[in-house]
UniProtKB/TrEMBL annotation:
It holds the Pfam family Palm_thioest. Keywords: Disulfide bond, Glycoprotein, Hydrolase, Signal. Belongs to the palmitoyl-protein thioesterase family. This is Palmitoyl-protein thioesterase 1. Its EC number is 3.1.2.22. Residues 1-24 form the signal peptide. Gene3D superfamilies: alpha/beta hydrolase. The keyword Signal applies. GO terms for molecular function: palmitoyl-(protein) hydrolase activity. It comes from the Eukaryota. The keyword Signal applies.
Amino acid sequence: MIIKSLPWTVLCLPLALWSSVVLASPLARPTPKRPSGHGNPRPLVVWHGMGDTYNSPGMLEFISLIENIHKGIFVHSVYLDENPKDDQRACFWGDVNVQVANVSQQLRDIPELAGGFDAIGFSQAGQFLRAYVERYNSPPVNNLITFGSQHMGVSDLPLCRPWDIPCQLARRATKGGVYNEWAQTNLVQAQYFRDPNQLPAYFEHNHFLVSINNENSSTINTTYASNFASLNKLVLVMFSLDETVVPKESSWFGSYAPPHPNGTILDPKVIIPMRMQEVYKEDRIGLRTLDERGDVLLETCEGTHMQLKSGCWKPLVKRYAGGLVGGDSEGALRDGEQQVLKFQ
Ligand SMILES: *[C@@H]1O[C@H](CO)[C@@H](O)[C@H](O)[C@H]1NC(C)=O
Ligand SMILES: *[C@@H]1O[C@H](CO)[C@@H](O)[C@H](O)[C@H]1NC(C)=O
Ligand SMILES: *[C@@H]1O[C@H](CO)[C@@H](O)[C@H](O)[C@H]1NC(C)=O
Ligand SMILES: *[C@@H]1O[C@H](CO)[C@@H](O)[C@H](O)[C@H]1NC(C)=O
């Protein structure tokens, strides 16, 4: 049987399984148990994290656990290439704007998703799914759950496992010239690198995060805000001991403060929380609208980056995924369950 208590680690290595679990043969695309529609659980889209692949044992295990929670649910695992090696490579190399466009086509082409779906993004895929919502959202996302994502970017690059060569190479190349044109169209992590001490360079040269955060006032796209605010719930999960995402509060739309206007770099560093961000205060992406409606949930999971303990992800997946189409929008309301989402 499946061991549920051990942590899962995803960064720069596949969502690792911890036992010799015998898995079903790798599925390129999970097949629906029954057509989704009125009275059935809402379909779910999951997008794996950096260094992982859409059909790794860890992802397949995660999906099968969800299928046990929400019987009959259709789950699609996002890929940029059906070949797992190339899918993994696309975590590091490529143009995120192109990748998100590619995924939007993929999601549009899946008949089971036509009525809308809930979505779960692991780590960097959380902000990629947010880009999907803001720019495409057709079919629309109902609830968006992001685990350990970098919504306000990272001010340092994620560390790699010593043996993870693709990750190491990408990290080295990204550090070399994060805001140059080549990096901004070829190195995935450069496209959400946001150094608070170099904000002018970021505003001017970043190709992805500045756009989806509407941080450049001359290029604001109001469609992003209306699409994003159309979510039912936005569930932002931060890992309490995350040292991979710098700062970890980025998972909650926090960031380090820029230097004092006189140029002094703040020491110790100060976090600007979500509700103090310009992007929020000016409601540039609809985040404030969502929050004032009570639809932004700031959740904490105890542990390091993507340490997905079942006590952390299960209540969230129970509650915010698999709601009945045409019925309650939240899974947990279906069986009257009162999940208290506290992980203290
Ligand atoms: C986009 O999708 C197509 C079809 O699946 C694939 O062949 C292609 O490599 C993808 N492009 C990118 C940039 O990931
Ligand atoms: C704003 O974003 C929408 C959705 O991606 C796009 O269709 C539109 O062209 C964008 N508008 C501008 C001015 O870039
Ligand atoms: C905003 O974007 C425009 C067009 O890409 C660019 O020319 C300008 O420098 C950016 N603004 C800032 C403050 O960087
Ligand atoms: C900048 O302002 C801060 C806060 O008022 C002050 O502590 C610091 O000494 C100033 N630095 C310079 C170089 O003026």
